[in-house]
Specification:
The protein is globular. It has a three-stranded mixed sheet with strand order 1-2-3. Helices cover about 35% and strands about 25% of the residues. The chain is an alpha+beta fold and about 90 residues long. Strand 1 and strand 2 form a beta hairpin.
Amino acid sequence: MKELVEYLVKALVDKPDQVNITQTDGEAVTILEIRVANEDAGKVIGKEGRIANAIRTIVKAAGAKNQKRVSVEIMTQDMPAMKGQPS
């Protein structure tokens, strides 16, 4: 799953070397955290979030094949990691 998202995102951005995907596997859900350079965030999100939603749809379909729920989060390099932060 992580490789699929990495392939898609790297094809969209200007700085593919700054793409970082973190996969956190939980009991019921897998979280994929996408980190890109600040100037590439708009390319990954797209107008009105269309590209982000397309990535989420593809990942959801791939996850359904494995009977796994997958959540995709898009971050920029200067945003802090979500681990350990209260919700």
